[in-house]
Amino acid sequence: MKISEKKIDTYNNEGVVHLKKIISKKWLKELNKGIKKNFQNPSIYKCVYEKYNNKELFYDDYCNWSKIKEYKDFFFKSKIAYIASQLMNSKKVNIFHEHVLIKEPGSKKRTPWHQDQSYYCVEGRQNVSFWCPLNDVNKQDCPEFIA
């Protein structure tokens, strides 16, 4: 998938760009399989933000891509690295980590406002994060971005 110069310019000038339908249904299915594996055997980094009646409603985990085939395949076999390279204008892409956030129906807790860069132990402008919802999300539940 070739990203337009306009989209690349938007990303580089504003720090965010909306890229629709860049992940095929095949990869969304594979990532869903990976998520199921992930939370059947979470890492030490799993965190639960909200529970109700002992049911986890909002939780996350990260740094599992090397042990979950579906995540690893996504990074290396889908076009996501190529898309990242275009946005960064780079010939090389390194994986920092994946971060899976799950919000089940009924979750009331909002994701805290934050800036990802402060969490990363990297410097420079060649850094891309992708928000990839695996199911339909209403506009009121989408992340908000500020340029």
Summarize this, please?
The protein has helices at residues 5-14, 25-40, 69-77, 80-88, and strands at residues 47-52, 55-62, 99-103. It is α+β, with helices and mostly antiparallel strands and 147 residues long. Strands 1-2-3 form a three-stranded antiparallel sheet, covered by helices on one side.
Detailed description of the structure:
- The protein has a three-stranded antiparallel sheet with strand order 1-2-3, with helices on one face.
- The protein is 30% helix and 13% strand.
- It has helices spanning 5-14, 25-40, 69-77, 80-88; strands at residues 47-52, 55-62, 99-103.
- The longest helix has 16 residues, at 25-40.
- A hairpin with a 2-residue loop joins strand 1 (47-52) and strand 2.
- It is built from four helices and three strands, in the order H-H-E-E-H-H-E.
- Helix 2 (25-40) runs antiparallel to helix 3 (69-77).
- The chain is globular and about 50 Å long.
- The two termini are 25 Å apart.
- It is an alpha+beta fold.
- The overall pLDDT, averaged over residues, is 91
Terminal Cα span: 25 Å
DSSP strand content: 5-15%
- Secondary structure class reads alpha+beta
Describe the strand arrangement of the main beta sheet, using strand numbers. 1-2-3
Rg is 16 Å
Low-confidence region ranges: none
Give the strand tally: 3
